[in-house]
What we know:
Layout: H1 19-26, E1 32-33, H2 45-51, H3 67-77, E2 84-87, H4 90-101, E3 107-112, H5 117-124, E4 128-133, H6 141-147, E5 152-158, H7 170-179, E6 185-189, H8 204-207, E7 214-219, E8 232-236, H9 238-245, H10 255-265, H11 268-292, E9 303-307, H12 312-321, E10 324-325, E11 327-328, E12 337-341, H13 345-359
Amino acid sequence: MKPKRTLVGLPVYQPGKPLEEVKRELGLSEVIKLASNENPFGCSPKVWESLKEEESFTAMYPEGLAPELREELAGHLGVAPSKLIFGNGSDEVVQMIARTFMEPGDEAVMADITFPRYKTQTVIEGGTPVEVPLKNGVHDLKGMARAITERTRIVWICNPNNPTGTIIRREELESFLAEVPEDVLVVMDEAYHEYVDDPSYPDTVSLLDRDPRLIVLRTFSKIYGLAAFRIGYGVAAEAVVTELNKVREPFNANRLAQRAALAALGDQDFVRRCFEANRDGMKQIQSQLDEWGLPHFPSQGNFLLLDTGRPAEEVFQCLLRKGVIVRSGAALGYPTHLRVTIGNEKQNERFLDELAQCLGKRRD
């Protein structure tokens, strides 16, 4: 049986290597995973308390529109509830957008290099990805504007960008939007939004009222620590959300995920603590890299893309044997780089100790 034509040659997404798999393969008892930009502090304790309320509802389907979570999140963001759509992770909202607005022969403009699911979903729908190289690890918005044609339906922008962690700033985005035709959607994927501390970062949600072309994506998988629950969301004009709901699976956000997200959203003190710990951890790793003279991109996420000066796969395997899982830049388009998630203080120290051994560096 043959697959659909658009799937021929399409690669399978390769996530960060699972912690359990590494333990089994290498016979290690102590392994730390700094590969998938997960929150090393887990989630708010309030999540586990709230899940007790779902014990008697496990046989029931969830409410498809997530009304309780919708109301709370709308209040948190300052938007109308009708402007929200939930997904099984924000990845599913990416899929919904492509399924709703892309047809065979259409084009989607995106960066090269960025989160790969934009390209994958474009190709699955029979569209053509138009990739514009990054400039110093940052989206080249002027180049992306020039790449828009009459066949362009969507522009994908990951901000902060994965895997570089770099951002585009408010003025740059507003200038770009002024050049984009009215019939082209601009999707701002802000999975790492809560980690940003740069004051020039754009407040995209505030732009929605005057720019119905925008779709803003966010997630509970990162700073909220709910990656296992798989829940993310999009914020867009009500007319856009109406169209997206036509392709949304009826029960895509499960009951436990909705309850967990509701509790996590209500604990902003936990979010602030994670933000501060990430900022401290970022400085902890950056200062050592600077001392070693290893270049790295100025990240506004919870990860760093650093240049080892050696083949990435070689360093990745060395760390793996020592029980430290990171992401090899070879799979991300940076053949001498590693992407490392910022862990807790102890994890960061272990990463630096093991990296020093792999690279023949000294630690004072």
